[in-house]
Amino acid sequence: MSRDLKVGDTASVSKIFTDEDVLGFSNLSLDNNPIHLDQSYAENSVFGKKIVHGMLAASLFSGLLGMKLPGEGSIYLGQSLSFTAPIYIGDRVTATVEIVNIRPDKPIITLRTYCLNSEGSLVIDGEAVVKAG
Amino acid sequence: MSRDLKVGDTASVSKIFTDEDVLGFSNLSLDNNPIHLDQSYAENSVFGKKIVHGMLAASLFSGLLGMKLPGEGSIYLGQSLSFTAPIYIGDRVTATVEIVNIRPDKPIITLRTYCLNSEGSLVIDGEAVVKAG
Description:
In chain A, 26% of the residues lie in helices and 35% in strands. Chain A has helices at residues 19-29, 34-37, 39-43, 54-67; strands at 10-16, 75-83, 92-102, 108-116, 122-131. Chain A is elongated and about 55 Å long. The N and C termini of chain A lie close together (6 Å). Strand 2 (75-83) of chain A pairs antiparallel with strand 2 (75-83) of chain B.
């Protein structure tokens, strides 16, 4: 491993996902579900307003893992995700990754990965497994 | 549930992820890892050429679940992902979701979710849990 890593290390990033971001992700993922794109549809849904794709918000983990912790050269092996609450368009999401285990025999690292909304509520929870570079 | 669903039902979609797609996803996810964007960096990496973000390819599951199977009105509860092999830019990825369990007491559905590359090799494997609309 290129530098010291230890259990408890964290990295975070925040982003507000806009209508434009959500439209861009819909195009990339071929996910044109109206719950993300159609105001009147969303108002009549269980959510009451348009929501961000869970996989879009979860993609913040990819950047944190590959660029910050463990950082460059990491190989992404796995990710689990629980979408625990809706994320509304325009709300600030803060994604955090925290090292919870480092294998003693090889550089395989497990991190808790979670997102909070601007009220501090947990909206995504899960774990990532990466091989450090 | 709005229609009959049964174990073994599948839905699939194919997409070739281009450099432009990967750049777009880098901007959305704040993931500017050079393994996805920098030709010479990628050539000198373990992968040998630029790769698609695993989370971008996995986002195809979101569209399949929300629009095809179970389809509109579904609520995405969870997703696990194993990134089993690299996905190269320009290769065709086929994502499939297949119902593996339907709870008898409520409309909670588990689907196997996987991606194959153009050679038929498994590049992503995992499971999704959704509440059918």
